[in-house]
Specification:
The complex is a heterodimer of chains A (369) and B (695). With 369 residues, chain A is of the alpha/beta class. Chain A folds into 2 domains: 10-139, Arc Repressor Mutant, subunit A; 146-364, Dna Topoisomerase Vi A Subunit, Chain: A, domain 2. Helix content of chain A is 41%, strand content 18%. Chain A has 13 helices and 17 strands. Chain A has helices spanning 10-29, 69-91, 97-103, 115-129, 203-211, 214-217, 231-244, 256-266, 276-279, 291-296, 306-316, 324-336, 352-364, and strands at 35-39, 46-49, 54-57, 61-65, 95-96, 138-139, 146-148, 151-156, 162-166, 176-177, 187-192, 196-200, 220-224, 248-251, 285-288, 302-303, 338-339. The model of chain A has no long low-confidence stretch (mean pLDDT 91). Chain B has 17 helices and 24 strands. The two termini of chain B are 60 Å apart. The relative contact order of chain B is 0.07. Classes of the chains: A alpha/beta (369), B alpha+beta (695). Chain A binds chain B through residues 18, 21-22, 24-25, 28-29, 31-34, 66-69, 72-73, 75-76, 79-80, 82-83, 86, 108-110, and chain B through 484-485, 487-488, 491-493, 495-497, 499-504, 506, 509-511, 513-514, 517-518.
């Protein structure tokens, strides 16, 4: 597997997009309703790819054809997006997904009903054309993660110059902000002096570890995920793992949503299963907080809500959580009916997390310092 | 003196004001908020009754003004016949006396204690007199008088009587005829569901021939609430005939009084003359069953014999009482009345045929409105009426509500949590019970008491309007689907074609085979509109064939056929298929083509005809039309033929003057006809092609 996401030339991208339009046109010429063929994008159609070690879309296909008004509108929008992308490629511009959403106001019957719709359609196009949205000159709004730790990167700034940044010495308390494009034409991983990378779900815990100097003490890079991590966050973690061969550990709350955050990092997200091999870090491991920890450390906890219970039940049938360890953890959580936040560790004082909890957990994973 | 007589003597000595005080919750004066509603009700009901009797289109004005804390001045004025000078005392002083016994017919007045109660309440709570201005047409001036009640003698006291020209304060014109009542009472004005406003709004719905206005002002004269409901029809409720009581509805006491006062010399003629539906043959059978000789003198009938007679009344089969003593509002007028007060998208109404329960004729009418401005969450609004009088209290304990709750509304498209109870959704349901004898659960006369036959009739009426609603919803959803398909093939598909061709730099494909494949159906759209110039209610039906094969159809449409309407514009010809159903044979429709069918009805006003049903004969489905159910059509034709035959018999009987002397055999055949009618849908609305929906 290559380290680099395969990038396509402008002409290749346009050719791929034209194939989508051609499928529609060909069908109409034969007297049939135009259509577009897509993989089914749900947990029922993802499976583990043994060769890649991540979860990818399976063989189930769905046909979007112009026999209902909704689908016909989707096809028309797809054609408008195609035209828009072609124009951007020709003029060397790019736009955010949100900008495209607003631009669609001028597309008459092809305009989007919501931002979500335009995001999904852009992903559909990626999947069908096997291009990346970067190829389409489309940028996300979502903000990337921040990093603190003794690693050195080079980023090409907007003047086109390469800037060298050490993520411990050259940044403030908020750390280095990960840009939306972290491919090699934009970002180089230059140097590191760390033993592992720790990804943290919540800002509160990230700041606690920074304040306690955990990155230096334990020789690690800290990454704040900001909830469900953006594509660029997952991609940069994948590159760190591949290029620096450093262990990646994920430190999150103990609730069903945090489990999904981990799954998207380690196994691949359902929505982006077409590019799991570029985004998912199969070497990543879950540090905590686990359901066991709630009991072992007697952590303050909250009752599971109805939504939590439903989410857990759904996870039991999610192929990404089919391993024994996850089934056990989810089962235990259902049994005790509790969830806990990372910051519940403060029960034992502000330093407990860095002095006791993390060293113990890391040691159990074979990481000592 | 017997014990009973002693008690009754004592009761008479109880002062009338004490009686009033004790029973004010029955009389509608139990709370300050309710007192004003009751006062308005008594006064407006009187006005409506008087106008109806005098065949005058009522104009009724109600003014309420707060004079001080917990005190209101009420002024009501009508354009009715007025009350002759000598009758004023009687009308306003007759307290707690029932209406004349023999007069059995539907009136509003039977429900209240009458206007006297208002005069009494005013006097008791504020010590003031009620000012009455009455003008009858033939007098040159109006009578003005102050009225009070002598509570010991139970009669009105007149003071300050004078005659003057009556100039209307609003129009500054002299009033030709009418009645104006001004009274002050302890009361509070309240807005909302139980208010004078709501009472008048409901009254206006069931009295579409009346114009009613309301102005409520506070102490400073600032208007705090007002409403005006203008008449939507000039058609007065039909004149109702007074009928004699039906034996099945007569109680022992009444019978004994009738016997005592009887002038007839033989029991047979007594029964025939004092009761309805008692021909000679029936009177003989009744007397036979009661074991009373036909030649006995009514005055000499003993108590235990009269008891036997009452029993015989129940056991001997008798014809139902005549029903022309009832005054239904009628379908179209209910629709108009509802539209006057509620803005909605759809109305389904039904007037059931009159029926009788325990010798009392009654008739059920139901109207359902849906959509528009009606609120979508929360229970539907229930508008209950008995003899055109709104019932505003005790909704839960009322038969009308219970019958409504017993219907499974979910299957008609209304949300009904738990599968029973009051449904939810943007709807309002009107229920009108017209009867010569409405049975209430209590003297408060706000809730109708249980009666199986009335309950069943209401349920049947509900199911009919329910089917109407279901049909409407089905049609709306079909229409929505068809609209989407049209948008798809007429707008989106051509754009997909254009855009993809542009992107690929190719020729645009021919879309007609694509359209056929996407639609693969025949679509029908109907549109009803008003042709102002020709004064025609128009219907335009368009049929599109989006299939790959040529199609041939007969299209059938319902239209409001009646004595006053006719199909005056109909270039396509066709023929009458049944009552209110016209059929047109269409030319062969080729793939991808469409055809238009148009016709216009005269004799209607704008807005009278808002919805029709379209049916078809032919192969395959038509989206937007229902396949004709030939079996039901046959049945309807048979019913119509039967009705026509009956009508002929009736006319012949009338002509030969034997109408009221129906022989036993004729009577029998009439009953069997009645039954066969009942087994069929009676209004002819909403039933074609809906065999599966019949409950």
């Amino acid at each position: 597997m290559s380290d680099e996401a395969p990038r396509r030339s402008k002409d290749q991208v346009i050719d791929e997009l034209h194939n989508v339009a051609a499928e529609m046109h060909d069908r109409m010429q034969k007297g049939s309703p135009p259509r577009m063929t897509l993989p089914v994008r749900s947990k029922s159609n993802i499976s583990f790819d043994n060769r890649l070690g991540v979860f990818k879309y399976g063989k189930s296909k769905t046909i979007r054809d112009a026999t209902s008004l909704g689908s016909a509108r989707q096809l028309l929008r797809t054609l408008h997006i195609t035209e828009f992308i072609e124009e951007m490629i020709d003029s060397g511009k790019s736009s955010t997904l949100r900008e495209m959403y607003y631009i669609s106001e001028g597309w008459g019957h092809g305009k989007f009903g919501s931002q979500n719709e335009s995001n999904n359609l852009a992903e559909d196009l990626e999947i069908v054309t096997k291009c990346l949205r970067e190829d389409f000159k489309l940028r996300p709004e979502e903000d990337g993660a921040r990093i603190i730790g003794n690693i050195t990167l080079e980023e090409r700034n907007r003047r086109g110059e390469w800037m060298r940044i050490n993520c411990r010495d050259d940044v403030g308390d908020s750390g280095y902000g990960v840009p939306y494009n972290v491919e090699s034409e934009k970002l180089k991983l230059v140097d590191e002096d760390i033993d592992f990378v720790m990804a943290i779900e919540t800002g509160g815990m990230f700041d606690r570890l920074v304040e306690n100097g955990f990155d230096e003490e334990s020789r690690c890079a800290l990454i704040h995920l900001k909830g469900q991590p953006a594509r660029s966050t997952r991609r940069i973690m994948k590159r760190m793992s591949d290029e620096w061969k450093k262990p990646i550990v994920v430190f999150a709350d103990c609730d069903p949503w945090s489990f999904r955050i981990f799954a998207s990092i380690a196994y691949g997200a359902i929505k982006t299963a077409h590019i799991s091999e570029y985004l998912a870090t199969k070497e990543a491991s879950y540090l905590g907080i686990t359901a066991d920890d709630i009991l072992a450390y007697d952590l303050p906890s909250d009752d599971l809500t109805k939504q939590d219970v439903n989410a857990l039940t759904a996870e039991l049938s999610d192929p990404r959580f089919s391993t024994g360890w996850w089934q056990e953890q989810i089962g235990l959580m259902q049994e005790i009916g509790k969830k806990a936040e990372q910051q519940s560790l403060a029960k034992y004082g502000l330093d407990f997390v860095t002095d006791t909890y993390l060293p113990e957990k890391l040691a159990s994973m074979g990481i000592t310092y | 003196m017997s014990e009973a007589e002693e008690i009754s003597r004592k009761q008479k000595q109880v002062s009338i004001s004490e009686f009033f005080e004790k029973n004010k919750h029955f009389l509608g004066f139990d709370t300050l908020q309710r007192s004003i509603i009751t006062a308005v009700k008594e006064s407006v009901d009187n006005s409506l009754d008087a106008c109806e009797e005098a065949r005058i289109l009522p104009d009724i004005r109600v003014e309420i003004q707060r004079t001080q804390n917990d005190e209101l001045k009420l002024i009501t004025q009508d354009n009715g016949p007025g009350i002759p000078r000598d009758a004023i005392e009687n009308v306003f002083g007759k307290f707690l006396l029932g209406s004349r016994f023999h007069a059995i017919r539907q009136t509003r007045g039977q429900q209240g204690i009458g206007i006297t109660g208002v005069v009494m309440y005013s006097q008791l709570t504020t010590g003031s007199k009620t000012n009455v201005v009455s003008k009858i047409k033939k007098d040159s001036s109006a009578v003005i008088v102050e009225l009070g009640i002598d509570t010991k003698k139970n009669k009105a006291i007149k003071t300050g009587e004078r005659r003057e020209a009556w100039i209307d304060g609003l129009t500054s014109e002299e009033v030709v005829q009418g009645l104006r009542i001004e009274t002050v009472m302890k009361a509070k004005y309240q807005r909302g569901k139980k208010s004078v406003y709501q009472y008048l709004r409901m009254t206006s719905i069931v009295n579409p021939h009346a114009t009613i206005s309301l102005v409520v002002s506070d102490k400073n004269g600032d208007v705090i609430e007002q409403g005006k409901w203008i008449r939507t029809t000039n058609k007065l409720p039909r004149v109702v005939r007074e009928i004699r009581p039906h034996p099945k509805g007569v109680h022992l006491g009444t019978l004994q009084r009738l016997l005592r006062d009887a002038e007839e010399r033989r029991m047979t003629s007594f029964l025939q003359k004092n009761f309805s539906s008692v021909p000679p043959s029936a009177s003989k059978r009744i007397l036979g069953a009661a074991q009373i000789e036909e030649s006995r003198t009514p005055k000499r009938i003993r108590a235990e014999e009269s008891q036997q007679l009452v029993k015989a009344f129940q056991t001997v089969p008798l014809r139902d009482p005549p029903t022309d003593c009832l005054s239904p509002i009628e379908d179209l007028l209910i629709k108009k009345g509802l539209s006057k007060a509620i803005d909605s998208r759809f109305a389904s109404t039904v007037t059931r045929k009159p029926r009788a329960t325990q010798g009392n004729p009654f008739q059920i009418e139901v109207g359902l409105v849906f959509g528009g401005d009606l609120q979508t969450d929360g229970p539907i609004e229930i508008l209950r009426f008995a003899n055109r009088v709104p019932l505003m209290y005790q909704q839960g304990g009322c038969l009308l509500t219970k019958a409504l709750e017993s219907v499974n509304w979910k299957s008609y498209g209304l949300d009904q949590p738990g599968g029973n109870g009051i449904p939810k959704g943007p709807a309002a349901i009107l229920i009108h019970l017209a009867s010569t004898n409405v049975q209430f659960t209590s003297e408060a006369k706000e809730a109708v008491s249980y009666d199986e036959e009335v309950f069943d009739e209401i349920r049947k009426a509900m199911l009919e309007v329910g089917r109407g609603l279901k049909n409407h919803l089905k049609k709306s959803s079909q229409r929505k689907k068809a609209k989407e398909k049209f948008e798809l093939v007429n707008i989106i598909l051509p754009e997909i074609s254009k855009k993809s061709s542009e992107l690929l730099d190719r020729e645009e494909p021919d879309l007609s085979p694509v359209i056929t494949q996407i639609m693969n159906a025949v679509f029908l759209e109907e549109e009803l509109y008003w042709d102002k110039k020709e004064r025609l209610a128009m219907c335009c039906i368009t049929v599109h064939n989006y299939t790959a094969r040529a199609r041939a159809y007969t299209i059938l449409a319902k239209w409001p056929e009646g004595p006053d309407t006719s199909m005056s514009f109909n270039p396509t010809g066709g023929r009458k298929e049944a009552g209110g159903l016209w059929a047109w044979r269409l030319d062969t429709l080729n793939p991808g083509s469409s055809t238009v069918l148009e016709f216009g009805i005269s004799g209607l006003s704008k807005g009278d005809w808002n919805e029709t049903d379209v049916f078809f004969r032919g192969n395959g489905e038509i989206i937007g039309a229902t396949k004709m159910d030939e079996k039901l059509l046959d049945e309807q034709r048979k019913t119509e033929a039967l009705e026509a035959a009956m009508e002929e018999v009736r006319i012949r009987e009338e002509a030969s003057g034997v109408g009221n002397l129906i022989s036993d055999s004729e009577e029998g055949s009439k009953t069997s006809l009645d039954r066969s009618e009942e087994s069929l849908p009676t209004t002819g609305s909403e039933w074609f092609g809906l065999a599966g929906d019949n409950q």
